[in-house]
Write a structure and sequence with these properties.
The structure holds two protein chains of two kinds. Chain A is α/β, with parallel strands linked by helices. Chain A has ten helices and ten strands. Chain A is 35% helix and 25% strand. In chain A, the strands form two sheets. Chain A has a six-stranded mixed beta sheet with strand order 6-7-8-3-9-10, sandwiched between helices. In chain A, strands 2-1-4-5 form a four-stranded antiparallel beta sheet, covered by helices on one side. In chain A, strand 7 (182-186), helix 7 (194-208) and strand 8 form a beta-alpha-beta unit. The longest helix of chain A is centred in the last third of the chain and has 15 residues, at 194-208. The longest helix of chain B has 39 residues, at 24-62. Chain B is built from 19 helices and three strands. The chains are: A alpha/beta, B mainly alpha. The structure holds adenosine-5'-triphosphate (ATP) and magnesium ion (MG). Magnesium ion (MG) binds at residues 56-57, 105, 186 of chain A.
């Protein structure tokens, strides 16, 4: 937790990528997200932390409208990306999701080959001109997800045949391959060993150059290592949001303080 | 950390004492498990025994349908009788009925008997009863098709009559022949003499699979040709209609349709349709396809449509189950990458559901293949001797029968030789079912690439 190695705390507060205002999410009668308003800047890593069941994944799924696929889920409020309301009737969620990539909490590779897993996104979006181009995209994505060395000799093997941590990195590679502008990562390192975690964290740093990354994590040290901004969720509410350094050293809210000092959750 | 249970909280009793001695609970559980295994084994054994009894009874009475007793002879096709005008004109020759051909065969048989040196105390007419009436008609057809044969002496292998055939298949004996007005012991003796000289044989004969049905008095000539074609046509129609409609409906209901009262209603209705007795579909087919739409009776198209209606619920239920079994995380993964719903279904969900869909389809087809009741209602039980045309020439609209209906039909007939024919037809039906199931297994293997 005190490992604050290579974090740039300076946030270039130039542009806001995502704006959320008074977001409410209901699962049937359950009020899972209450009144969340947040501004997520571009080219930064934002960490969502909070106890289990507090709605981190739910809020993350609002940002690429994955909640649309849950029939009981209802989203209210306003979420803008680059100033455009993503819940506008004219917005096609399919187009939105190509722009806002996602790595899920549980690794979910397709039951296809490793190559096809990574190549799927570029294929459906027509990102590769030819086979060699696609090969290049796949290799680059796998390298960035720190998986290339392990799978380069068996790209045609099944993606589901990898270990849990490898599968998670495969999913990261798959999401990165479509070059989204925003990458949502739901506990991407929960199944990874410290070495792979380190590699993924390096990837996140690298992605920050071009993208805006939102990461959900249960590891406080990871949040402090990789993020510039941190949001603390508690029972569906956004309790505190600010510079990561400030949240971890000088939390304003008692609940945040209790959580990061390990007294709850 | 906080929820780690303190050692003292472990309930005492379980897990205490030596592991080498089995405690009473474990012994009880093991006994229950042992009993359950025995029940299961008994159930399986009963099932296998029933299956073995069924198969042996069908095979013992039906396999002989694939063997046929035939007589070799030489027949002189006398021009005087067959084409008095000598013009080889079809219409002219067609005037000569089977009565005109019978004497030729009779003379041929007498010549064969004489050549073999058999002293038969039978008059030529009684000896002629060894030959199936069907053979006379077959000879006539052959001559009408090749008028050039007239005037020649040809080698002919003719079907023996049903009783003689039965003699070699153990249905007829000298004792039963004494009491039978259709066959006499002398005729059996003549048959045996001919067999000794090699003129009469019982051997494998595939005509059972290719010949059309024959009349009540000619069981030896009855075959499954028309029934197999009819069944094949109907299966083709069912496959072509039910598979795409069923799969499309299931995909829509499972992946696209909103969850509301209407879809609930449709779902309940589909489940109920699967349980509707098949004869009701027959009445429906009669009312809609024949009386209302005016399609011909006894035609494979009507049978195929009725069976399609019957098979659809089975396919839809199986397909929906297969789609439901695909983990939602796969759909999320595809959608999360920006795939459209349709892409996620066709690229990821459908391939995973394919084995289940195929199994359901083949089970539905197998059901349809064995279905009898609805076909009776739409007239497929008629006596059909003409082969339907190829599908391209409108064969779907020609009269035909179907395998299970043929079984039903033959079991209704009085001559005991038809028991053999019906059992033979059942064997063919079972062989087709086996083939379909093997296809299902094969396709499943192909699609179920283990990842
Ligand atoms: N599909 C769903 N249907 C109904 N309720 C749901 C659904 N998904 C989540 N919830 C509820 O919404 C609340 C927030 O869940 P969410 O998954 O967002 O938590 P989380 O913060 O991601 O937790 P964790 O850290 O354990 O992943 C929980 O109370 C959960 O029960
Ligand atoms: Mg979560």
């Amino acid at each position: 937790m005190n490992d604050m190695r290579h974090v740039e705390r300076t946030v270039r507060v130039d542009t806001t990528k995502i704006t959320a205002r008074d977001v409410q999410v209901f699962y049937g009668d359950t009020h899972a997200i209450r009144n969340v308003s947040v501004d997520i800047p571009d080219k930064t890593v934002t960490a969502f932390i909070g106890p289990s069941g507090c709605g981190k994944s739910t809020f993350l799924r609002c940002l690429n409208r994955m909640n649309d696929t849950i029939s009981v889920a209802r989203v209210e409020g306003r979420i803008e990306i680059d100033g455009e309301d993503i819940y506008d009737r004219r917005v096609d969620p399919v187009q939105l999701r190509a722009k806002v990539g996602m790595v899920f909490q549980k690794p979910n590779p397709f039951p296809k080959s490793i190559y096809d897993n990574v190549a799927y996104g570029p294929r459906i979006h027509g990102l590769a001109r030819d086979r060699a181009d696609l090969d290049g995209i796949v290799e680059k994505a796998l390298r960035r997800a720190a998986l290339w060395a392990e799978v380069k000799d068996r790209l045609s093997a099944a993606g589901t045949g990898l270990s849990g941590g490898q599968q998670q990195r495969l999913c990261i590679a798959r999401a990165v391959a479509t070059s989204p502008e925003v990458l949502l990562m739901d506990e991407p390192c929960s199944a990874l060993d410290p070495i792979a975690t380190d590699q993924v964290e390096n990837l996140i740093h690298e992605l920050r150059e071009n993208y805006s990354v939102v990461i959900v994590t249960h590891s406080m040290s990871q949040a402090s290592r990789v993020s510039q901004k941190t949001a603390y969720f508690h029972l569906g509410e956004l309790v505190e949001y600010g510079e990561t350094g400030q949240i971890f050293t000088n939390p304003q809210d008692e609940r945040t303080e209790n959580y990061i000092t390990g007294r709850i959750g | 950390m906080t929820d780690a249970t303190a050692p003292g909280a472990v309930p005492s009793g379980a897990g205490q004492g030596s592991l080498l001695a089995r405690d009473t609970r474990t012994a009880k559980r093991n006994a229950a498990e042992g009993r359950f295994k025995i029940y299961g084994l008994v159930a399986v054994c009963i099932g296998i025994a029933a299956l073995i009894v069924l198969l042996t009874s069908i095979l013992t009475s039906g396999l002989s349908a694939f063997r046929q007793t035939t007589i070799d002879m030489q027949v002189t096709l006398d021009e005087e009788r067959l084409d008095p005008s000598g013009a080889r004109d079809y219409d002219e020759m067609a005037r000569v009925t089977t009565f005109g051909y019978a004497p030729l065969l009779r003379d041929g048989l007498q010549a064969t008997i004489a050549a073999a040196g058999i002293e038969a105390d039978l008059d030529p007419g009684d000896a002629m009863d060894l030959i199936s009436d069907e053979s006379i008609a077959q000879l006539r057809n052959r001559v009408l098709d090749n008028p050039d044969l007239v005037g020649q002496t040809i080698d002919l292998t003719v079907l023996a009559s049903g009783r003689i055939d039965g003699f070699y298949k153990g249905r007829v004996s000298y004792a039963s022949a004494e009491l039978d007005s259709n066959v006499s012991p002398e005729q059996l003796r003549l048959a045996e003499a001919l067999e000794e000289r090699g003129a009469l044989r019982t051997g494998l004969d595939w005509r059972f699979l290719t010949a059309p049905d024959a009349s009540d008095t000619r069981p030896e000539a009855a075959g499954l040709g028309v029934a197999i074609l009819g069944s094949a046509y109907m299966m083709l129609i069912v496959l072509v209609l039910a598979l795409p409609i069923g799969v499309a409906a299931s995909i829509y209901l499972e992946e696209f349709a909103p969850q509301n009262r209407w879809t609930d209603l449709i779902e309940v209705n589909i489940s109920n349709l699967a349980a509707v007795p098949s004869i009701v579909f027959g009445i429906l087919g009669l009312a809609i396809f024949i009386n209302f739409a005016g399609l011909p009776q006894s035609a494979p198209i009507v049978g195929g449509l009725v069976l399609t209606l019957m098979t659809l619920p089975t396919i839809i239920i199986a397909t929906r189950a297969a789609l439901k079994a695909v983990p939602p995380s796969i759909r999320d993964a595809a959608l999360g990458l920006g795939a459209s719903k349709m892409q996620s279904v066709f690229h990821h969900v459908l391939p995973l559901a394919m084995p289940g869909i195929l199994t359901g389809t083949i089970i539905g087809l197998a059901q349809a293949l064995g279905e009898t009741a609805p076909l009776l209602l739409i007239g497929m039980v008629a006596f059909v001797r003409e082969y339907p045309d190829t599908p391209l020439d409108g064969g779907f609209f020609d009269p035909a029968t179907a395998l299970p209906v043929q079984v039903f039909n033959w079991t209704q007939r009085s001559d005991p030789a038809f028991v053999e024919r019906a059992s033979g037809a059942i064997i063919v039906l079972l062989a087709f079912l086996l083939l379909m199931n093997l296809t299902a297994v094969f396709l499943r293997r192909r699609f179920e690439r283990r990842w």
